[in-house]
Amino acid sequence: MTNLKRSFFGAAIYLALIFVLGQMDYAGRPIVNFASYFYLAVMVAVPLTLFFPSISRVSVYVPILVWAGVYLVLLQIINRNYSANQGELPVVVLEFILLEVGVWYAHQLALQISHAESIMDALALSAFPNQARNIDAENQRIKIELTRSRRYHRPLSVVVIEVESEAEKITREMLKSIQYDLLSRFTTARVGQIIDDRIRQTDLVLRDHKGRFIVLCPETDFPSAALLAKRISQAIKERTNLGVLWGVAAFPDEALTFEDLLQKARERLVPSTPLPTEQIAMVDSQ
Fold it and tell me: Most buried by CB count within 10 Å: which residue of 9, 142, 166, 171?
């Protein structure tokens, strides 16, 4: 957390430096007359580098080189006379350095935030261990299951489980910022643990970028998958008091690819309803 604080402090100093340099006057004239497109470049480059996770995963030199190119292009195509004095080489060099430093700081801050999120995920998983995997990391397993179902003409279903937005809204009102984020991660881990307790060993539990759980169910037709989804939803409601949305799609009747199955199941997300006792027993016996 110390590195994260330092990164935030460095970013604050960086923004303050640009503001102070741009506002300092001497004898009625600005000491450093930044071009308007420099401010625009900083306003776009820093948030993009900071808030897009895919950018923080690449080497820091990639965004630095990209924004260096963007600045040089702007320098060639935009007339500085409209917003700054033309031919001020030191100012141009200073703008270039400040933009690159801003991109570097944003990248470092994004790395620190990602590291902090990993720590919170690890804490949540240590409290509520589950087998949910990142959906992007399991492409090969998904392809294998779909190929096997196609080859042998066997059923396969996809179940999507999502905590209702109203429940998240209430939680967000109760706790803010990092407290909410940490609680959300613990809640997700707890939901994953409950799902683990309700599925078979052959089922694959995944989690997408929005925190939704996807259960890939080989050898499972639509009615059985729907019963499983209701059973999971009811267990989550009983153990966490959270409302749950669920949706199901079946191969090959409704779609032939995993992406289409996933889209179909997401479109069918509906609130969970109480499951009769005889249906719970039916799913348990499968």
Answer: 142
